[in-house]
């Protein structure tokens, strides 16, 4: 039984951690609302302005960058949900030769630093003629080893008796997957959505390596060019940071319950 003192200590630590994470975002939001004459000053609320947002929206290609980021993120997210989830189900439930070897190869892929794979992937993309294209930005990341591992571990926690009962009723493996397994996996799928979405939306190294056409910039790369253009105006730079962060906050607020549930119920069985 948790004592009052331990509960007070826990909530104090949580409040301190929250403060540490919220302060930088609060600073960025406040700075993004400052006029150029008020930079690095503490001003009352009536001095704050939205002019920086209108400057960014109408004097840059940020709407095109938003579109590119949305297309790339949704493409990778949909691919991850289909490929990672079906691959994890096969590794958790189906029997076929080489299954253990495939699983250990996936674990091994997770141990290889991402930076090591950039050059060979880039060489293949160049040979395929996919520079400055959605194909080059999306296809190399349709499969994520960590998310396959995450989903597999969750599937192992689902009782096999449910599938056996479905098999007795004449339900096929595919029917069992869609009608029984997926409805029970909302928490894990929500967790996968958050990881895949945030990782893709915030991606910078690969897009800046692959793309040199301003029309194909994703939001992270495009905002980096704004930082170079407006380096003497931190209010405009912070405006870009807020515009980049808002979609992530929205997605997290929608799926946070599934994130907690998915992490809490994903075991280490197998």
SSE order and pairing:
Elements: H1 4-32, H2 51-58, H3 62-93, H4 99-111, H5 114-128, H6 134-138, H7 145-156, H8 160-168, H9 173-181, H10 186-201, H11 205-210, H12 219-229, H13 234-265
Helix pairs in contact: 1-13, 2-13, 3-7, 3-10, 3-12, 4-7, 7-10, 8-9, 10-13, 12-13
GO biological process, one term: transmembrane transport
Pfam families: BPD_transp_1
Protein name: Carbohydrate ABC transporter permease
Key traits:
270 residues, MetI-like fold, 0% strand, mainly alpha
Globular, elongated, flat, extended or rod-shaped: what is the shape? globular
CATH superfamily: MetI-like
Number of helices: 13
Q: What characterizes the major β-sheet? A: none
CATH class: Mainly Alpha
How far apart are the first and last residues' alpha carbons, in Å?
Answer: 32 Å
CATH architecture: Orthogonal Bundle
**How confident is the prediction overall: mean pLDDT?**
86
Domain ABC transmembrane type-1: 66-254
Pfam families: BPD_transp_1 (PF00528)
Family: Belongs to the binding-protein-dependent transport system permease family.
GO cellular component, one term: plasma membrane
Characterization of the model:
There is one protein chain. The protein is mainly alpha-helical. The chain has one domain: Orthogonal Bundle (MetI-like fold), CATH 1.10.3720. The chain is built from 13 helices and no strands. α10 (186-201) runs antiparallel to α13. The radius of gyration is 23 Å and the shape is globular. The mean pLDDT is 86.
């Amino acid at each position: 039984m948790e004592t009052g003192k331990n509960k007070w200590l826990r909530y104090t630590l949580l409040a301190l951690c929250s403060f540490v994470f919220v302060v930088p975002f609060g600073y960025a939001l406040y700075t993004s609302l400052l006029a150029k004459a008020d930079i690095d000053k503490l001003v009352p609320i009536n001095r704050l302005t939205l002019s920086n947002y209108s400057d960014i929206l109408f004097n840059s290609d940020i709407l095109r960058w938003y579109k590119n980021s949305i297309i790339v993120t949704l493409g990778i997210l949909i691919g991850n949900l289909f490929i990672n989830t079906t691959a994890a189900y096969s590794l958790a439930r189906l029997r076929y030769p080489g299954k253990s070897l495939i699983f250990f190869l996936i674990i091994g892929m997770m141990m290889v630093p991402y930076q090591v794979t950039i050059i060979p992937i880039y060489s293949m993309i160049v040979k395929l003629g996919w520079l400055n294209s959605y194909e080059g930005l999306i296809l190399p990341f349709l499969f994520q080893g960590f998310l396959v591992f995450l989903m597999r571990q969750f599937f192992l926690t689902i009782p096999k008796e449910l599938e056996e009962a479905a098999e007795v009723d004449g339900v096929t493996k595919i029917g069992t997957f869609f009608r029984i397994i997926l409805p029970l996996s909302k928490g894990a799928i929500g967790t996968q959505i958050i990881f895949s979405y945030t990782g893709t939306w915030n991606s910078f190294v690969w897009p800046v390596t692959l793309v040199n056409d301003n029309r194909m910039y994703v939001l992270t790369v495009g905002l980096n060019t704004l930082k170079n253009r407006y380096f003497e105006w931190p209010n405009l730079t912070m405006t870009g940071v807020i515009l980049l962060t808002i979609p992530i906050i929205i997605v997290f607020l929608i799926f946070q319950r599934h994130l907690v549930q998915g992490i809490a119920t994903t075991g280490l069985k197998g």
